[in-house]
Amino acid sequence: MAAAAAAAGTPGAFSGINTTTLQGGAARIAGLFGGGRDITVAAGVIVVVMMFIIPMPTPLLDAFMALNLILSLLILLIVLYTKRPVDFSIFPTILLVVTLFGLALNVSSTKLILSQGAAFNGRMIRAFSSFVVGTSGTEGIVVGLVIFIVIIAVQVGVITKGSTRIAEVAARFALDSMQNKYLAIDTEFNSGAITEEEATSRRTAVRMEIDFYGAMDGASKFISGNVKVGIFITVVNIVGGVIIGAAIHGEALGQAVSTYIAFSIGDGLMSQLPALLVSTAVGMMVTRSVSSGTFAEDVGNQFTRQPPIYWVCAAVLFVMGWFPGFPKPVLWTLAAVMGFFAYRLTRDARRKQTAPAAAETDAKKEGDAEALPPTLPLDTLSLELGYGLIPLVDKDRGAELLERIQRLRRETATDLGLVIPKVRIIDNLRLDSSEYCFKIKGDEVGRGKIRMNHYLCINPDGASSGGIKTNIPGERTRDPAFGMPAIWVDEEHRDEAERAGYTVIDPPSIIATHLTELVKQNAASLLGRQETQAILDTLKKDFPAVVDEALKVLSLGEIEKVLQGLLREQVSIRNMVSILEAISDFAPAAKSITYPELKAQYLIENARQALGRLICLQYADEDKTLHVLKIEPGLEQKIVETGTQTPTGTVSAMDGQLRAAWLGALSRSIAAIKDHGWASPPVVLCLPQSRFLVKKSTEREFPELAAISALEVTQDVNVITVGEVRLENAGT
After folding, report:
1. H or E element: which one contains 103?
2. Fewer CB in 10 Å around end: N or C, the chain?
3. CA-CA distance, 17 to 5, in Å (whole number)?
4. CA nearest 682: which of 700, 704, 698, 711?
5. Domain for residue 685, yes or no?
């Protein structure tokens, strides 16, 4: 029964065999040969090296010689179809392998020729010595020797020498330009013209280009060395063959010379033809550093730009046909071909010129509305300049404003954790010549005026006359960023203003500072879903578990609202890990909250508590001391009681009398602490349940007021109360 079961192939027949063992053995075999490509290449290199030592039969030599020829042709064709040199990055290594392969074939053929003599039956070498030369006998030997010498001369004196020099110069210039290319990439990245991924990709491309040309500089020496060794091997074949044939094999001297020179010439031509193809490929590769397409595309584009030159060529060929002794059929045929080619190019050029005009006419007929795209995208952040401020962004004059904006993007990323988008700078003829304005998504958020060749001087001490010292000549104005009293002075009085204690600011710094403040105030508007997704994608590379957990319990829009809420109060979102962990922990508790805005508010408060130390240090001094205003408990309780939940979030429903009393008391307290020398923005320490209401009820009148919850204060921060807000007798 068991035998029958085995014959039938039933499962029971093989019940004694461990199928897991069979699968494991199959997996090991697959693993051994799974990297077949790597094993093949490694085996091939080993075989090439062993060919220098181990003799091989002539059929195998013929096969390898044919393979060497077709491999060299493949390399040349790949170079012709390559758009950029670095796209064929393994070319230098291939040169080494191909050169080594050719030399191994030379050594192997030399062994067979010298050992077998007239009995040598290598068909590739015999065919090359007769077919390429085109004749036999003594004449064939002389012709073959001349052809061999010419090929060697072309390789040594023209192709190899020129390729080596070009590769050397290309490597040197690529290395010298590396820093400038890196600087250009950093400049585009800092200005927002490219993303971080594009900047990294470009830096990698520059590094690959430098490495490639450096490797080509060394690899070109392989070709020149190969040519020299080829000459040496040919001479050895001739001299050694004549000696062996005449002295050892007992052949007549004339017969030995004829036999071994013929074989040596055939062997030399067989080895030098692939070397000539590879040398040509090297020369083409290193001379196409400025190419933007394949060689055929470049020829087609650049040889068809000027149709008149082909009319001239056709005319010259036609006239030459009338000269005595010149072959009229050949020249006139070429003239006709050139004339036809010139006619086709001229016709195509005229079609290209008339096509845009016809398209423009059709667009006008269809109407301007149809010619325009359906929607015009808005720039996220734009700076519009009057024509008088154009020199600030003129690269020929230094483009100082561009440098300031680059630094602004880096500082904003460091301070707020938000990479602001690129700032598009455009001129606007509707602005005054000295005026500028900022727009976020098409909406104006700020503007100011600049006096070129003047400096804005601000008195940080707030001296008499509204902060302006009257003994400095200049035009009075206000700082556009902070609204502080200031004065415009020219270059002549700049040193005088500095000696008088003014803070002197040049025009590019004025605009950059103004932009910095506007970005901080409107950071929440710059963060949308796309930017939020980009932040999460970047974070996921290093913290995949944190991001995945957050996206399981929160939508992208909810995370966006939390980040916007933090940025709205200028809280940095650099510590995204802590933010996501905090809101992920409290997301289940927030499911019962009906309105999305209330849910976001709840998550924001918990995220702030996770960032408590960062928030406190943002307002503390160097000794980690936080000076705060406190709210009288009865007043704070009234503020809490006025809180009302709505679909748009919690709002403060104070009546007019209480609101006026609250804002008045707060104003008196702020003025009192400023009189005591506290120039920094005020900080109000609140209960967790009142923090949001305190901030919400004061953001219009006191936009710089910071409201901090008691749960946000960490143990390593010292808190000193400098005043208390009371409805009556408010003060310190």
Report:
1. helix 91-116
2. N
3. 14
4. 704
5. yes
Question: What would the DSSP string read from start to end of 447-513?
Answer: EEE--TTEEEEE-TT--HHHH--TTS-SEEEE-TTT--EEEEEEGGGHHHHHHTT-EEE-HHHHHHH
Task: Reduce the DSSP state of residue 30 to 3 states and report it.
Answer: helix
Q: Please tell me whether residues 621 and 604 are part of one structural domain.
A: no
622 Ramachandran zone, left/alpha/beta (phi>0; psi -120 to 50): alpha
Shared domain check, 648 and 571:
no
Pair 142, 270 in one domain: yes
Q: How far apart are CA 518 and CA 129, in angstroms?
A: 82
**pLDDT at position 136:** 56
Q: For residue 216, what pLDDT is reported?
A: 73
d(Cα 56, Cα 62) in Å, to the nearest integer?
Answer: 10
pLDDT score at 10: 37
Tokens read off for 516? 């910095």
The answer to whether the beta carbons of residues 563 and 546 sit under 8 Å apart is no
pLDDT score, position 14: 35
Residue 652 CB contacts under 8 Å (≥ 6 apart), including other chains: 639, 642, 643, 644, 693, 696, 697
Residues 395 and 495 in one domain: yes
Q: What is the mean pLDDT of residues 605-624?
A: 90
Say whether both 513 and 435 belong to one domain. yes
For residues 382 and 439, the answer to whether their CB atoms sit within 8 Å is yes
Question: What's residue 393's pLDDT?
Answer: 81
Enumerate the β-bridge partners of residue 448: 436
- Structural contact between residues 472 and 464, judged by C-beta atoms closer than 8 angstroms: no
Q: From the DSSP assignment, how many helices (H) and strands (E) are in the chain? A: 29, 14
Q: How far apart are alpha carbons 175 and 207 in whole angstroms?
A: 9
Name the pLDDT band for 364 (thresholds 50, 70, 90): very low
- More reliable by pLDDT, 560 or 153: 560
Question: Would you place residue 544 in the very low, low, confident or very high pLDDT band (cuts 50, 70, 90)?
Answer: very high
DSSP state of 228: H
Domain count of the chain?
5
One domain for residues 236 and 321: no
Q: Which of 481, 497, 522 is the last residue of a domain?
A: 522
Q: Which residue has the higher pLDDT, 270 or 535?
A: 535
Global pTM value = 0.52
The pLDDT of residue 184 is above 80:
no
Cβ neighbours around 509 below 10 Å, total? 15
Identify the three-state secondary structure at position 100.
Answer: helix
The domain in which residue 699 lies consists of: 615-732
Q: Are residues 648 and 689 in the same domain?
A: yes
Q: Could you read off the pLDDT of 51-61 as tens digits, one per residue?
A: 877 778 888 88
pLDDT in the model for residue 127: 74
